[in-house]
Amino acid sequence: MSAPRTLFEKIWRRHVVSPEGVTAEAEGLPAIVYVDLHLVHEVTSPQAFTELVERGLPVRRPDLTLATMDHSTPTDPSIDDARLRVLDPEGSAQLDRLQANCERYGIPLYAMGDERRGIVHVIGPELGATQPGMTVVCGDSHTSTHGAVGALAFGIGTSEVGHVLATQCLLQHRPKTYEVRVDGRLQEGVVAKDIILAVIARLGIGGGTGHVFEYTGEAIRALDMEGRMTVCNMSIEGGARAGLIAPDEVTFAYLEGRPMAPSGDAWEAALEDWRSLPTDEGAAYDRSTTLDGSALEPMVTYGTNPGMAIPIAGAVPEDEAIEPEKRASFRKALDYMALEPGQQLQGKPIDVVFVGSCTNSRYSDLVAAANVLRGRKVADGLRVLIVPGSDAVKRQAERDGLAQVFVDAGAEWREAGCSMCLAMNGDQLAPGQYAVSTSNRNFEGRQGAGGRTFLASPLTAAASAITGRVTDVREVLS
Amino acid sequence: MSRSFTRYTGTMAPLPIQNIDTDQIIPASYLKVTDRSGLASGLFSRWRYRDGDPEGEPISDFVLNRAEHGEARILLAGDNFGCGSSREHAPWALVGYGFRAVISTSFADIFRSNALKNGLLVVPVAEDVSAALFDAVAANPATEVTIDLKAQALSLPGGGETNFEVDPFARRCLLDGTDQLGYLLNQASSIQAFEAANPARLDTRSG
Ligand code: SF4
Q1: pLDDT tens digits, residue range A17-42?
Q2: Strand extents, DSSP E, A117-220
Q3: B195 to chain A: which residues are within 8 Å by CB?
């Protein structure tokens, strides 16, 4: 019997091409880690391809590489290719570049108009491309999302995108492990997004630096796959490059029959293998923390990083509650948000609601929002954007009548893409505007220069859309 | 772009803010480039210029706009520098502007890795060292420090020095100009052996 191992250790060991240096001569050498799936998008790849071209290198494994267009693509249905070239020549040029690079190297690309296109972290699991036990990387920090299926998935920089294109490998030091246990059953109105916002508020946005989170506990097990993706997605907001959830029957049921998932005998073999992945009884993590899921409330952020979050019925902290050396940054954040210490957020008037991003743009997120909005109207003067995470999500929502619920309520129903999550494509806040957003970052100017973001769940976003104010969904539903 | 670093002596630009994220270092509107250059004007643009517009009026009290810090090539920043997005455009912009190193009490993982691949040294220091450096720069903006990568030492303004940690492989690459991709390419036979023993479980072209 081998020593008990964590899920992380099992995946890591399977992918080590050469171990971290142990001999005196090799001391400090990083491990060479093999990558099973490399996801590529238009924004962080052009310089990496240029490096390959300059060195005359091929792409080692185009068959393990998959590209999509998402970050800067328009979500306004009236903007076609010709109009985009006029409106955003730089963005179009970047899309053209991705297309040319993929053609040159034989990499499958889901370009504009392709039914499989969508946000890179939505389509990976949706297509069954991300599978338990894999290593998955992408030039995007929210690659951690794919950890929800039990894959070791993390974001890399553009130089590393080049490394993976050329060698299918990365130089990595082995990170430490951090168990984040969430016990208990969630209350009504509390969802995956609230769990992860509460975790980050507890650990701080640098709390997971150097670590990989593994989420465990009853509240995590009870989440469906898309909820698990929401949790793993924001691991990076806790400073952890990756977040993992052990695969179980929920995972297998989700993956079965997806286009890139194994089928037939291969499915059976895969299942047997995947069942061996969960952390062994008695395996040790480098760190652990436990939260009581039953005590969690809907969460909302008040500041300019995702760790600055409070229960929705709570108030912005007073100065005294902040460590002295952090007060200047705290004050800077409140100045930017035009909020006061001790202020209640509930009831705060807002200008925009954004339901979208790789955190909360999947079908179940849209169902949650639609259940609140059905038969209701969005508040006068409020702009509400509903941006599905993929073309497939969009089509399903249109088939099932969700899209109609949004349109009837007075929301904008958009094309799939990153949209106002990073506001590269023209979907953005005006200076001074407040938004309740289901995305993952409330950094200064993230959703548009001068824009102010309250991060929250799709339920909170939908409830706030009805009132035009930051609203506790439990009040709307009761 | 030079990707090496051995030793540098110079003044510091103090930015005593915690959790400076890469969206602040270089906003998303600059991410439409297809090369690594031309990002310097976007560096901290939302803090540096009115309405974030490099063509517009500079915000006079922002550190990079202050005459006494205009020549500084070491950034002295608050804790958890470079958190958020994985964009390597952040170190490209810092290097493009002329920064050689960033000193902070801690760095986000992806930023650290990206910076070291671009010749931008990240120098982690203890809290008391950081506080002393901020004090020294506030008292005298012309305060110089020396960062010696070989010795992994940072000279302190009041005399003496402190050692700092750096990933040994990145250090080696910076000191002797080893190129990380070149190093990986040299491991082709191990990679091939790994592939032979571990057949792919996926073909993305089959979707
Ligand atoms: S939705 Fe936002 S966080 Fe997710 S990949 Fe797109 S830009 Fe990044």
Answers
A1: 999 986 656 678 899 999 999 999 99
A2: 135-138, 152-155, 169-172, 176-183, 211-216
A3: 34, 168
* Residue A181 tokens, joined: 């246990």
Chain A positions touching B23 (Cβ under 8 A) are 422, 441, 443-446
Residue A1 has pLDDT above 80, yes or no: no
Radius of gyration of chain A (CA): 22
pTM exceeds 0.90: yes
Q: Are A405 and A399 in contact (CB under 8 A)?
A: no
Q: Classify B7-178 by CATH class.
A: alpha beta
State the pLDDT at residue A61.
Answer: 98
Identify the residue among B104, B135, B198, B202 best suited for mutation to test binding to A, counting A beta carbons within 10 A and taking the highest. B202
Tally Cβ neighbours within 10 Å of residue B92: 30
Q: pLDDT (tens digit, 9 = 90+) per residue, A75-133? A: 999 999 888 988 999 999 999 999 999 999 999 999 999 999 999 999 999 999 999 99
Quick one: residue A330, left, alpha or beta (phi over 0 = left, psi -120 to 50 = alpha)? alpha
Q: Domain limits of chain B?
A: 7-178
- C-alpha B113/C-alpha A155 separation (Å) is 11
ipTM beyond cut 0.90: yes
Domains of chain A are: 7-171 (3.30.499.10), 176-295 (3.40.1060.10), 299-477 (3.30.499.10)
Q: Is residue A182 pLDDT above 60, yes or no?
A: yes
* Interface contact A209-B109, CB threshold 8 A: yes
Write down how long chain A is: 478
Q: How many CA atoms lie within 13 A of A212 on its CB side?
A: 30
The best mutation among A425, A439, A442, A447 to test binding of ligand 1, ranked by most ligand atoms within 8 Å of the C-beta, falls on: A439
Strands (E), A374-451: 383-386, 412-413, 434-437
